[in-house]
Specification:
InterPro entries: ATPase_P-typ_cyto_dom_N, ATPase_P-typ_P_site, ATPase_P-typ_TM_dom_sf, ATPase_P-typ_transduc_dom_A_sf, HAD-like_sf, HAD_sf, P_typ_ATPase. This protein has seven helices and four strands, in the order αβαβαααααββ. By secondary structure, it is mainly alpha-helical.
Amino acid sequence: MSDFSDRRREKQYVERRWKDIRVGDFVKVVCNEIVPADLLLLYSSDPNSVCNLETANLDGETNLKQRTVVSGLCTSSMLNNNGSRCKRSKLERKLNVDVFFCLILLFTMCLIGAIGHYLWLESLPGVPPFLVPGSNGHLDDPSLMSFYMFFTMIILLQILIPISLYVSIELVKVGQIFFITNDIDLYDEETDSSIQCRALNITEDLGQIEYIFSDKTGTLTENKMVFRRCSIMGTEYSHKEN
């Protein structure tokens, strides 16, 4: 360990086994060498700072894949972090659009009401008895009263915004998930487990999936490496299950 620490301070490579590699270690890989770990390419001897690797042991693809040296090693991890993508169902997106149009309708109706109130006040010859004048015996400015009327109509017409609809839909989702998790047809006796719904919007997408695009066969099947047999000094050892 002391020799390794001295070489690290001297910035020299040390021969170590792959099982001894830890996160944060700098690894030098030569041509045609097997890499049994996830590595980040920091430097390449290629003039274009690229390297080619083969992943046939993982996915069976023999074509070489090109990797490029990362640029900006100090903020690359932050540049690649775009945050979690918010997934919304079709019903939720449709509901948000409808509420947005309700807001536009409410604003339009209040604006028309305020303009109409201003024109009505301007057309009055005097102070009508149903309007309370100020301390000076005169009404407020029509533009100011129209401004007040705009917010008054917002209070009166705010029922156009279906805020309770969101709560109702969430309650319906909770009820649907309850019936799904307690469905006897979705129960597996071998593993003694039932279906688990970990998202409220999962019920909205059921039965709405039209296409599945996949670039790997293992995505839909299963890539599993199974020990079949080996031969040691002429003696063949096979796996019983295979």
